[in-house]
Design a protein that fits this description.
The complex is a heterodimer of chains A (about 325) and B (about 325). Chain A has ten helices and four strands; from the N terminus they run ααααααααββαββα. With about 325 residues, chain A is α+β, with helices and mostly antiparallel strands. Chain A has two domains: about 180 residues, no CATH class; about 100 residues, no CATH class. Chain A has a four-stranded antiparallel beta sheet. Chain B folds into two domains: about 210 residues, P-loop containing nucleotide triphosphate hydrolases (Rossmann fold, 3-Layer(aba) Sandwich); about 70 residues, Alpha-Beta Plaits. In chain B, about 35% of the residues lie in helices and about 30% in strands. Chain B has eleven helices and 14 strands. Chain B starts with a strand and ends with a helix. The relative contact order of chain B is 0.13. Classes of the chains: A alpha+beta (about 325), B alpha/beta (about 325). Chains A and B meet through α1, α5 and α6 of A and α2 and α3 of B.
Chain lengths: ~325, ~325
């Protein structure tokens, strides 16, 4: 290894260390961690609690761990993304700590990517702890678990999904130099795409748009379909519900390995029903499950690269007047 | 000899406001150079350009013989910089901060292990190195800011208002640190609006106002440029006509006026002639109680330069 390379590595790792120490000593992050572990514990103990209050007795669930998405869902990914990254760039500007940092003999590119990598490692460690906690807890509470070897895919998916939100937080934080704008802006975009987008997509039959936006994406159904299985006058698609967005990368990868031949069928809700007086789900189109996965990974990559690319460009050119 | 800092026509604008206006600055190596000016004079803006935090709108900047470009970390490895009221990451301990910054400066483990305790000792934080920066007082953060500026043994140390937030003891210590650095061949570029601080520690001074350099050189050189009279204010016992006459006979005295025990003696020289004046007073039968030279201090020079600038402006 050449001296310059060694020196660059040492500087990069110094930035990584700086960022990790900042993250793990943040009250927001520690609070989020406590909440995540509390929710994971609740999800592990949920059946026992229901059973203790007179509900059905706890049955073994061999697929509990593999279906748990590291104990988090789309909103969990978003929150971890915001909490981990909202201080990464913008808070440095807000607090003024960017001044001594950027005056050090480290290139801005090294600072930027060191910080990004630091945020990634913080997230990786957190998700690993959560995953191990869920795996051990699932085994203890619900008995032996199936397909534990696929759990790393769940971890990969969770990380990937969160990194998109991290890149968006970084982008908004770098452009605005405000942690509040970064956090609220990201939350607003998530709300827009997830809630409003899915309502419009489902009712207007334009759900495909959501598959090109970060988040939950549109919903389809695999391994089943019509004929209707609901009560008279109302039809439901059968099969497994699939979220085709970037938040579903982990579970979808696992499902794909377990069921490579699945097709995903999309529906729109036809308020008027397929026949007069009926409320029904009208099939729109189908595609291979593999296509869904490839597209969601590609979409995630494109957004990540674009958001990070713009953030890096802006950060490199940022002047520090205050 | 290569200058430590050299700027030609350095200009920086914030919208319609010109913070630095075609500033020519030369800082010789191995000097303590004061950068003096009132608030808003463009001192911090100039410094931020020097350390790569701001991009100039015009002119050139050379530091230690190398032209400052945008995001060139190599040059910064030879510069130590302490910002005005340094904001340091509160989540790190004092030693952690210096260790991380030391790594960023490319220091080896051995160098960090040796230098960090020495620096903490030097700035009086030896006992508080393991505390979080967030628990430090303003003065302590200022001291830590000084320590981080001296990591990696820089050739040029840029200090932006280093005395703000320090108690009188701390101010004296900072001055001693600067003098010590200068003795070791380090160039110190110090921005301040505290005239006495600059006068006590600096060998050279540049005075700026509204982004324009008003004067630059040694204090004596700058004083010489000022055309205003130097006055001696003397408190004298037994003031008499003979005393006044004796003083008036001195070739460099232009006017003497008195009010009770006070004598105001106007001079046509900027040399320190207090001993001759004192001898003349004694020869006339007076007893000198105190004697002050007015118009020679940096404060006088500074005020006069600002006044001249204002006159020209209006």
């Amino acid at each position: 290894m050449s001296p310059s390379h060694t020196s660059w590595t040492a500087k990069f790792l110094a930035v990584v260390r700086y960022e990790i120490l900042w993250n793990i000593r943040k009250k927001k992050f520690l609070g989020m961690l406590v909440v995540a572990f509390a929710l994971a514990t609740l999800s592990l103990a949920g059946d026992h609690i229901v059973s203790a209050f007179g509900g059905p007795s706890v049955e073994p669930k061999p697929d509990f761990v593999i279906g748990s998405s590291v104990g988090l869902g789309g909103f969990g990914f978003l929150l971890f993304g915001i909490v981990t990254a909202m201080n990464t760039i913008s808070a440095e500007f807000e607090s003024g700590t960017i001044v001594p940092l950027l005056a050090k003999p480290v290139s801005r590119t090294t600072v930027f990517f060191g910080k990004l990598f630091g945020a990634f490692l913080t997230l990786l460690a957190t998700y690993c702890f959560l995953m191990i906690y869920m795996a051990i807890g699932g085994f203890v509470v619900y008995g032996p678990q199936n397909n534990l070897h696929l759990v790393p895919l769940s971890l990969f998916g969770a990380l990937f999904s969160t990194l998109i939100w991290i890149s968006l937080v970084l982008l908004l934080g770098t452009l605005s130099r405000s942690s509040l704008i970064a956090a609220l802006g990201t939350l607003g975009i998530w709300l827009g795409t997830t809630i409003i987008g899915s309502i419009l997509g489902t009712l207007a039959g334009q759900g495909w748009i959501l598959t090109y936006i970060p988040g939950t994406g549109s919903s389809g159904f695999a391994n089943g379909g019509l004929p209707p299985s609901g009560p008279p006058g109302v039809s439901f698609p059968a099969g497994t519900s699939i979220s085709t967005g970037t938040d579903g990368i982990g579970p979808n990868l696992i499902n794909y390995i377990l069921h490579p031949s699945w097709e995903v069928t999309y529906y729109k809700i036809n308020i008027g029903g397929t026949t007069p007086g009926q409320v029904g789900w009208e099939p729109l189109y189908s595609e291979l499950f593999s296509s869904v996965i490839v597209r969601s990974i590609a979409v995630a990559l494109v957004y990540f690269i674009v958001f990070i690319g713009i953030s890096w460009y802006v950060f490199r050119r940022a002047q520090v007047a205050e | 000899m290569v200058q430590a800092i050299e700027t030609f026509g350095l200009t920086k604008r914030y919208g319609s406001l010109t913070a630095v206006d075609k500033l020519d600055l030369k800082v010789e190596q191995n000097t303590i150079h004061g950068f003096l000016g009132p608030n808003g004079a463009g001192k911090t803006t100039t410094i931020k350009i020097l350390v790569g935090l701001l991009r100039p709108d015009g002119g050139t900047v050379t530091v230690l013989g190398q032209e400052i470009g945008w995001d060139k970390p190599k040059i910064r490895s030879r510069i130590g910089y302490m910002p005005e009221l340094p904001k340091l990451p509160k989540h790190l301990k004092g030693t952690e901060l210096l260790d991380i910054y030391g790594r960023m400066c490319g220091m080896t483990k051995e160098e960090r292990k040796k230098q960090i305790p020495e620096l903490l000792d030097m700035v009086g934080l030896k006992e508080r190195g393991n505390d979080l920066v967030g628990k430090y007082s303003k003065g302590m953060q200022q001291r830590l800011g000084m320590a981080q500026a001296l990591l990696n043994e820089p050739r040029l140390v840029v200090l932006d208002e280093p005395s703000i937030g320090l108690d009188p003891v701390g101010m004296v210590e900072v001055r001693e640190i600067m003098k010590g650095m200068s003795k070791e061949g380090v160039t110190v570029f110090l921005s301040s609006h505290l005239l006495h601080e600059v006068q006590q520690v600096c060998t050279h001074v540049t005075i700026v106002n509204r982004g324009v350099s008003l004067a630059s050189g040694t204090l004596k050189e700058i004083s010489a440029k000022i055309s205003g009279p130097v006055t001696i204010e003397a408190e004298v016992d037994n003031v008499s006509k003979t005393v006044t006459e004796k003083v008036k006979e001195l070739p460099f005295v232009t006017h003497v006026s008195g009010d009770g025990k006070k004598l105001l003696i106007e001079l046509k020289t900027r040399d320190d002639v207090r001993s001759q004046v004192s001898q003349a007073i004694t020869a006339g039968g007076g007893i000198v109680i105190s004697m002050n030279l007015k118009g020679e201090s940096l404060e006088d020079v500074f005020m006069e330069l600002l006044a001249k600038r204002k006159e020209r402006g209006s």
